[in-house]
């Protein structure tokens, strides 16, 4: 993992239709946890940092309860792929694909994210 | 029809009957058994487990219906009193006589009581039968101090029993060390340190000289050979056993110089119609064996000879043993004392941990034997390897796992002919056959099919490893171990980082990964419970710990269905001043929160947005409130009734006790939430018997109940101890809670835990009341450290700008509230506006 001093001036960015949108300093993210970000159109996105230092972004809305809480779930990995578990009823969503691991019919939106 | 008479129905006698049945002899012969004790054969090896709650019935060695099925006549409580070899008849105490064609003596042994003045006084016992145990238990009710004469295997068993009965216990041993027969000097001193550390007096190199008695003729003390004196209300002689050969002597059979009926390699005595097996016999090698495994072999040898089958011979036996004495593993096998020419020792000793391991090897590298004290896990692997050159160097075999030693030697390393169960002489190959050919997949099936594991039980773990892998006991997809095992790993190795636990102890495929939502909070809870003991920061949001917490712990509040949080300040014992009540009301009013009184005698404030939590808590902390840990798997509340202070029925001050307990255990992280209550009299208004630990006042103090639960599967709590003083009550709860935290599964309430753990309530009582595992000092120390290290999580969070920064709805718009957390009105308060969540979702519903 990158050392903290080098992280301070790095920004987390999400790709929106209009281009890369800066969200926050990388230093505000904790490995294994998420934060919620508000996009210009009012959309809520959950942004996560994994142990390897990769940033992931998915919709913040938990489709099972309708609550905007996925950013407050715990990050884990299954078969080497990172997921977030909803803090309400614990369904898991793959961070790379948005696929729900506990209900094959449910997928949540995914955003491309980078650090730059 | 020929008649076989068996005198003696102990473990060896029963094994002999089974061997006869296996060989079809019971179908053609009449079999008569005379048993002195009032109950059929029972497991004498595990006699002491009676004190762990095993009933005499559970100790029975006789399968239900065995005697009936094989037409065996068993007379219990009717010992043989005479044998006439001329007329071939046996007479029993009842006057019954039986003519025999073949007589088998399995009369066992009697405890040796040295000729010590006072040995017949009231309060002197031996330790041999269930009846002895019952008598000791009865007498111990009015005793406080006990002396055990004998520091061998039986003596330590007896000492463990006395300690379990709550007696101040001393062991007197004539030899210079404990267990002199089995272990060497190094092993003896490791054993001594550990046992002395449990609070038992150990007096080696001294014998009993005289038993002192009071005017009534009851034991009052013991004078030792060095003229020192020990106080004693009770004395147990466990100084060895002698063969019971009196019947044989009386009928003129040849007996050995030092006792024991002389037999040949077929276990036949000087009279070819009479056999002797087990502890009453002197085997063909001139030795008398006091262990069950050789006895079983003799039983089978005699059965073979009687059945006329190919002659099995008994020429002597391996004296290997593995025991758990006073909670300490002790094992010795092969040439434990290194008597072979040119043999070499490899020794590992760690006095701090009370571990001593010695292997004896030949210059060729062949393993000859060994002694293991304090950690005998390797016994079941090492004993079968005796006589071979092990696949690993001997020093690697004694090093603890993880300290330079490669992963423990697996059962794969054993050859098929290695004897796994030495009690029944069952090889690895035979067990694998049972698995492959008889489709045995569980331990009980293997036991039934091969008898392996039904003797001393030391090989059971190894048998388990030979079985095909079945149900995975692991905590989750990341860890192959249970929560209790993980607790031990973290405690012993003092690991304070989740990633280190995962990378070093996770399943291979999970190492280096992210972990999961199951094990992260579980590990966080274990680290928090152990924080002071392992040198971790007890603050749950400190460092890496923050990333492991469920959202409730992460934000120190309870998430509700619309993503808002509820806030519960601690109100110890349910007692609150009007001023504080007003503050709660003002905070709720100013932040527009919904208020409700909880079942735990406190007030829950609902509807706070995550960004409001610090401001709400700043007001509460300022007024003297602390976190109520309603969000944590931790102590919630200790309810109380008003008690003696106000109530005309009350007999104790239940409110004060509830407050004391709540303040003592606040913040304690556990496998699940903990609830408690204190009632001031037997009317039980605080409902203490539905709590994890509940206290009810009595005229003399307090009764402690444990394992109660309300909820989905209500359970009435069990009485753990009665009439306790304040200090005794607190000490017992300290131990109980720490033992629960140590051994429970993840999210397992005390009610389920108490039902699940082996031995149930009796076992827990033994551990926390009688300190049967010698754990109590450690459990109490852990709780003291918790109490000393307690800090209010909310007060601490409010002083740290870094930690406060996470309390925002949006990382890129810290001042903006979450527009989806809205409320509508109902009965003059707020409730979540759920419609908002369903309809105005900018992203629409789930993609299908």
UniProtKB/TrEMBL annotation, chain A:
InterPro entries: NirD, Rieske-like_NirD, Rieske_2Fe-2S, Rieske_2Fe-2S_sf
SUPFAM superfamilies named among the record's database cross-references: ISP domain (SSF50022)
Residues covered by the Rieske domain: 20-116
Top-rank EC class of the record's enzyme: oxidoreductase
Keywords: 2Fe-2S, Iron, Iron-sulfur, Metal-binding, Nitrate assimilation, Oxidoreductase
EC code(s) of this entry: 1.7.1.15
Entry's Gene Ontology molecular function annotations: 2 iron, 2 sulfur cluster binding; metal ion binding; monooxygenase activity; nitrite reductase (NADH) activity; oxidoreductase activity, acting on paired donors, with incorporation or reduction of molecular oxygen
GO biological process, one term: nitrate assimilation
Protein name (Swiss-Prot/TrEMBL): Nitrite reductase (NADH) small subunit
Gene transcribed to yield this protein: nirD
TrEMBL record, chain B:
InterPro entries: BFD-like_2Fe2S-bd_dom (IPR007419), BFD-like_2Fe2S-bd_dom_sf (IPR041854), FAD/NAD-bd_sf (IPR036188), FAD/NAD-binding_dom (IPR023753), FAD/NAD-linked_Rdtase_dimer_sf (IPR016156), NasD-like (IPR052034), NiRdtase/SiRdtase_haem-b_fer (IPR005117), Nit/Sulf_reduc_fer-like_dom_sf (IPR036136)
Cofactor dependency: FAD; siroheme; [4Fe-4S] cluster; [2Fe-2S] cluster
Annotated ranges, domain FAD/NAD(P)-binding: 4-303
Chemical reaction(s) catalysed: hydrogen sulfide + 6 oxidized [2Fe-2S]-[ferredoxin] + 3 H2O = sulfite + 6 reduced [2Fe-2S]-[ferredoxin] + 7 H(+)
Positions bound to [4Fe-4S] cluster: 641, 647, 681, 685
UniProt enzyme class: oxidoreductase
Molecular functions per Gene Ontology: 2 iron, 2 sulfur cluster binding; 4 iron, 4 sulfur cluster binding; flavin adenine dinucleotide binding; heme binding; metal ion binding; NADP binding; nitrite reductase activity; sulfite reductase (ferredoxin) activity
Domain of life: Bacteria
Gene Ontology BP terms: energy derivation by oxidation of organic compounds; nitrate assimilation
Gene3D superfamilies found in the cross-reference section: 3.30.390.30, BFD-like [2Fe-2S]-binding domain (1.10.10.1100), FAD/NAD(P)-binding domain (3.50.50.60), Sulfite Reductase Hemoprotein, domain 1 (3.30.413.10)
NCBIfam families: nitri_red_nirB, PRK14989.1
Functional note: Catalyzes the reduction of sulfite to sulfide, a step in the biosynthesis of sulfur-containing amino acids and cofactors.
Protein name: assimilatory sulfite reductase (ferredoxin)
Organism field: Streptomyces smaragdinus
Gene: nasD_2
């Amino acid at each position: 993992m990158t050392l903290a001093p080098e992280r301070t001036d790095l920004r987390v960015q999400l790709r929106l239709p209009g281009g890369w949108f800066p969200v926050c300093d990388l230093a505000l993210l904790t490995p294994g946890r998420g934060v919620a970000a508000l996009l210009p159109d009012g959309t809520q996105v959950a942004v996560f940092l994994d142990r390897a230092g990769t940033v992931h972004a998915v919709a913040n809305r938990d489709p099972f309860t309708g609550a905007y809480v996925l950013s407050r779930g715990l990050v884990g990995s299954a078969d080497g792929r990172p997921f977030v578990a909803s803090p309400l009823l614990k369904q898991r969503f793959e961070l790379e694909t948005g696929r729900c691991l506990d209900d094959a019919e449910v997928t949540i939106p995914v955003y491309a994210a980078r650090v730059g | 029809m020929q008649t076989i008479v068996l005198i003696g129905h102990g473990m060896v006698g029963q094994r002999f009957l089974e061997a006869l049945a296996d060989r079809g002899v019971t179908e053609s012969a009449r079999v008569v058994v005379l048993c002195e004790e009032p109950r059929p054969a029972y497991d004498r090896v595990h006699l002491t487990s009676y004190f762990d709650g095993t009933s005499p019935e559970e100790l029975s060695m006789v399968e239900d219906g065995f005697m009936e099925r094989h037409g065996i006549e068993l007379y219990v409580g009717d010992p043989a009193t005479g044998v006439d070899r001329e007329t071939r008849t046996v007479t029993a105490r009842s006057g019954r006589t039986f003519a025999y064609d073949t007589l088998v003596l399995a009369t066992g042994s009697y405890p040796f009581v040295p000729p010590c003045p006072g040995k017949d006084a009231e309060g002197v016992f031996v330790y041999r039968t269930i009846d002895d145990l019952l008598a000791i238990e009865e007498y111990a009710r009015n005793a406080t101090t006990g002396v055990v004469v004998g520091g061998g295997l039986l003596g330590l068993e007896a000492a463990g029993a006395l300690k379990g009965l709550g007696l101040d216990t001393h062991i007197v041993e004539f030899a210079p060390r404990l267990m002199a027969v089995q272990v060497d000097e190094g092993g003896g001193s490791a054993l001594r340190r550990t046992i002395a550390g449990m609070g038992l007096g150990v007096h080696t190199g001294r014998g009993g000289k005289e038993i002192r008695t009071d005017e009534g003729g009851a034991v009052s003390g013991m004078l030792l050979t060095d003229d020192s004196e020990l106080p004693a209300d009770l004395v147990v002689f466990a100084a060895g056993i002698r063969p019971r050969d009196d019947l044989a002597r009386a009928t003129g059979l040849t007996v050995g110089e030092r006792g024991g009926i002389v037999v040949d390699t077929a276990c036949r005595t000087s009279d070819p119609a009479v056999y002797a097996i087990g502890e009453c016999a002197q085997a063909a090698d001139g030795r008398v064996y006091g262990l069950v495994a050789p006895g079983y072999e003799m039983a089978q040898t005699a059965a073979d000879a009687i059945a006329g089958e190919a002659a099995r011979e008994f020429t002597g036996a391996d004296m290997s043993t593995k025991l758990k004495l006073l909670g300490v593993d002790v094992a010795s096998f092969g040439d434990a004392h290194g008597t072979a020419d040119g043999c070499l020792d490899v020794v590992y000793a760690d006095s701090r941990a009370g571990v001593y391991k010695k292997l004896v090897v030949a210059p060729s590298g062949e393993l000859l034997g060994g002694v293991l004290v304090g950690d005998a896990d390797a016994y079941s692997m090492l004993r079968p390897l005796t006589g071979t050159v092990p696949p690993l160097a001997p020093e690697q075999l004694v090093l603890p796992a993880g300290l330079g030693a490669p992963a423990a030697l697996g059962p794969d390393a054993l050859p098929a002919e290695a004897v796994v169960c030495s009690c029944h002489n069952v090889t690895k190959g035979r067990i694998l056959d049972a698995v492959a050919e008889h489709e045995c997949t569980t331990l009980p099936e293997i036991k039934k099919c091969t008898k392996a594991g039904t003797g001393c039980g030391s090989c059971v773990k190894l048998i388990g490893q030979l079985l095909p892998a079945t149900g995975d006991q692991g905590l989750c997809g990341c860890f192959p171990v249970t929560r209790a095992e993980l607790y031990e790993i973290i405690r012993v190795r003092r690991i304070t980082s989740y990633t280190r636990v995962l990378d070093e102890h996770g399943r291979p495929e999970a190492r280096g990964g992210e972990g999961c939502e199951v094990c992260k909070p579980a590990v966080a809870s274990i680290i928090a419970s152990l924080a002071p003991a392992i040198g971790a920061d007890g603050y749950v949001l400190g460092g890496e710990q923050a990333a492991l917490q469920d959202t409730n712990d992460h934000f120190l509040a309870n998430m509700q269905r619309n993503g808002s949080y509820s806030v519960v300040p601690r109100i110890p014992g349910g007692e609150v001043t009007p001023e504080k009540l007003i503050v709660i009301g003002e905070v709720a009013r100013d932040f527009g929160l919904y208020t409700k009184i909880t079942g735990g005698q406190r007030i829950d404030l609902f509807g706070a947005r995550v960004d409001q939590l610090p401001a709400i808590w700043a007001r509460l902390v300022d007024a003297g409130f602390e976190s109520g840990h309603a969000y944590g798997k931790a102590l919630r509340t200790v309810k109380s009734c008003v008690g003696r202070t106000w109530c005309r029925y009350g007999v104790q001050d239940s409110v004060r006790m509830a407050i004391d307990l709540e303040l003592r255990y606040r913040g304690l992280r556990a496998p699940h939430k903990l609830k408690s209550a204190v009632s001031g009299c037997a009317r039980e208004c605080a409902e203490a018997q539905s709590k994890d630990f509940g206290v009810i006042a009595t005229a003399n103090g307090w009764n402690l109940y444990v394992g109660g639960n309300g909820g989905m599967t209500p359970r009435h709590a069990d009485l753990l101890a009665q009439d306790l003083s304040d200090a005794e009550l607190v000490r017992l709860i300290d131990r109980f809670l720490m033992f629960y935290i140590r051994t429970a599964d993840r999210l397992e309430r005390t009610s389920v835990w108490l039902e699940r753990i082996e031995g149930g309530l009796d076992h827990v009582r033994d551990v926390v009341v009688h300190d049967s595992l010698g754990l109590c000092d450690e459990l109490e120390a852990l709780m003291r450290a918790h109490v000393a290290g307690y800090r209010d999580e909310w007060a601490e969070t409010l002083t740290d700008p870094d930690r406060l920064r996470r309390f925002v709805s949006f990382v890129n718009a810290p001042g903006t509230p979450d527009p989806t957390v809205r409320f509508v009105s109902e009965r003059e308060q707020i409730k979540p506006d759920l419609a908002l969540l369903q309809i105005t979702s900018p992203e629409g519903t789930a993609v299908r």
